[in-house]
Amino acid sequence: MQEVQGISPQMVYAVWRRHADVWVRTWRTNLLPPLVEPILYLLGFGFGVGAYINEMGGVSYVEYIAPSILAISMMFGAFFEATYSAFVRMYYQKTWQAIAATPASASDVLVAELLWATTKSVTNATLMTTAILSVGYIVNQPLISMQGAILMPIVAIPIGLMFAGMGLILTSYTPSIDWFNIPFFLFVNPMFILAGTFFPLSEFPPVAQNIAMCLPLTHAAIVTRTLAYGDGIENLIFSITYITIMTVVMTYLGVKLCLRRIVT
Amino acid sequence: MKNGAISAKSLTKNYGEFCAVNNVSLEIPKGICFGLLGPNGAGKTTMIQMIQASSPITNGKLEVLGMDTISDSREIRKKIGVIPQEDNLDPDFSVRYNLLVYARYFGIGLDEAKEKAEELLKKVELTDKADQEINNLSGGMKRRLIVARGMINEPELLILDEPTTGLDPQARHSVWDQIRIFKNEGKTVLLTTHYMDEAEILCDELAIMDSGRILIQGNPKELIKKTIGDNAAELVALSFGKDEETLNLVEKKCKLMKVSFSRVTDRIILYGKEIENIISEFKDEGNLTDIIRRRATLEDVFLNLTGRQLRD
Ligand SMILES: Nc1ncnc2c1ncn2[C@@H]1O[C@H](COP(=O)(O)OP(=O)(O)OP(=O)(O)O)[C@@H](O)[C@H]1O
Ligand SMILES: [Mg+2]
């Protein structure tokens, strides 16, 4: 059993490279969304809705949502990859099954899934940060601090891993690909609105604030917001602790539960 | 047998409560082509998944190429090639790139992999299709590509799970050729198939499984001789109405005279020395549409052992 479930960095890389190769093959269509989406959000919500809002949480509305959409894209990048895409590879394309006949182990495959999902988070964060900086440059209003822009891809790593782990937990359970719509509808989409992303948590009644503080996206958004504003990261202790613990627990559970499903 | 390719001792595999492989002991020497036959659900694929050390065994001991499947699973997979029952080529890549990506899992460098890929594509006659997408291939081409993929690491043991199911005769022969070439290099082949003629042609030795157990094992020719004899005869009739009654009569007679037989939908197949006695009794029976005398085959052994009921 030890060896069946062992992890070899070289094999993890080989599996990760397979996913990266697929991405590179279709790079044009893959680059577009994370570059175009933030521009739409900033235009529509930031400048459009923002025209009716003087300020939100002490900054202009467009500055308020810039870090929010970064956190959201880190979440979606990893979560989508570890759910829908991973399930397609597991169930429809039988990619995992094909790899099971090579020296790579099932654990290698799952760790590579986590890392690949995290990679998507990081590329999303990088591309979006670039897009947001460009928009800021055009409208002559820096939307993210330079120091924050540099750190965004780095914080996307733990944030991406956390959501990748949660995604794998769902993948270990899902009976069909359509089933993912349920957690997306009940959990991801509400979080999208309620995590202090489009309006500050302080506007919520206390109960809702406490609930929001339990949501992973809330903490991801707190981190990206603090970095974007160039505020001191000493205020982030709680969120970083939350993300660290969640990352460890979720990735561990995700791999363990998926192993139970595929190693039969 | 110390230098065997595969050695299973009291091997058992449970899926939950269900026992898919039940206390199987099997020794496969190196350098032969071994066939694993059996009806649907017999446990052939389960055996293969344990041999490739990706599915943990429940009980017993299993050694592949002298290595233990529990402690040396990676090492085992490095040295074997597996052609799975289900098509699991990577639809995201071209034909050639499928081989290159697969080579990476074996730690083969890109230059070497490229060389091997060209060589293998030529071998399975897919050089023209090297840059095609997988979805543009026919079933037979996919199968040949999977065979090529299974040989990318120059395995010592090649495992093929129903490699020719759904192939046209040409493609079948092409796969058979690959198996023969591979075996002639002194390497070992483990093959499952539902085609008895294929097993008879390719296998030096085979085992017939049913419901997770091995029923019989040996050289195909000897197995036929031992269990069936040289000859068989088929009494053919429709399997309903009056004809069915006739078949029932034949069946009764066989039981009475202790003649071994198999009943398959529209016919009864007779084996052994008493064939002619039964035939002479029924040759004027108007409800029998045909009486065929022929050489006994592996299919007779199979039907006789596993019975006529359909599996799911
Ligand atoms: N992962 C699994 N979980 C539960 N049961 C399984 C699993 N895999 C196989 N089985 C069961 O084990 C039995 C043996 O299956 P297996 O796939 O080994 O048969 P097979 O001999 O390869 O059949 P076929 O000729 O149809 O391919 C079947 O009853 C099957 O339903
Ligand atoms: Mg099978």
Q: What report would you give on this structure?
A:
Chain B: It is found in: Cell membrane. The complex is a heterodimer of chains A (264) and B (312). Helices cover 75% and strands 0% of the residues of chain A. Chain A is mainly α and 264 residues long. Chain A has one domain (9-262). In chain A, helix 1 (9-25) crosses helix 5 (106-138), helix 2 packs across helix 5 (106-138) and helix 3 (61-92) packs across helix 9 (216-229). Chain A starts with 8 loop residues before the first helix and ends with a helix. The mean pLDDT of chain A is 92. In chain B, helix 3 (95-105) crosses helix 4 (110-123) and helix 5 (139-150) runs parallel beside helix 6. In chain B, the strands form three sheets. Chain B has a six-stranded mixed β-sheet with strand order 6-7-8-3-9-10, with helices on both faces. In chain B, strand 12 (261-264) and strand 13 (267-271) form a beta hairpin. Chain B has two domains: 6-223, Rossmann fold, CATH 3.40.50.300; 231-295, Phospho-2-dehydro-3-deoxyheptonate aldolase, domain 1 (Alpha-Beta Plaits), CATH 3.30.70.1140. The model of chain B has no long low-confidence stretch (mean pLDDT 92). Chain B contains eleven helices and 14 strands. Chain B starts with 5 loop residues before the first strand and ends in a 6-residue tail after the last helix. Chain B is elongated, with a radius of gyration of 22 Å. Chain B is of the alpha/beta class and 312 residues long. The chains are: A mainly alpha (264), B alpha/beta (312). The A-B interface holds A 1-4, 6, 8, 10-11, 14-15, 17-18, 21-22, 25, 93-95, 97-106, 263-264 and B 15, 52-56, 70-75, 77-78, 80, 82, 84, 86-93, 97, 101-102, 104-107, 150. The complex binds adenosine-5'-triphosphate and magnesium ion. Adenosine-5'-triphosphate binds at residues 15, 18, 20, 38, 40-46, 85 of chain B.
